User: Fold this.
Amino acid sequence: MVDYYKTLEVPRGANIAEIKKAYRKLALKWHPDKNHDNMEDATKRFKEISEAYEVLSDEKKRHMYDQYGKEGLINGGHRSRSRHDDDFDGFGFGTFFTFRDTEDVFREFFVALLLLISLAISTATGITVRGETEIPT
Assistant:
């Protein structure tokens, strides 16, 4: 069973700042570009870390995960499918959550961080920091 809290090395009651800090530390440590000698393990760990961050950093997903585990995220809060589940698919009770690409999660997190740093520098110094606001894909 997946434990996103253990994956990010944070307690269950961790706040969003603690989750972001843990993700930043672990994502940089396990990013495949920094682990050429152990690419397969690094890629696996990086995906696990990004998936955990994606869930725990979103209040709704985190609540669903806390109640039902990873299966609850995939099945929209249902523990398992029954023969009657198809009767409810038209009412939006089908699949609740799909996982995004790990590189997208990483890029989104660090671009937002860089933009905040640029804004802080601009505010503190009065100097406008110019450059690309998007990372090319």
Q: What stands out?
A: Residues 102-125 form the longest helix (24 residues). DSSP finds five helices and no strands in the chain. The mean pLDDT is 77.
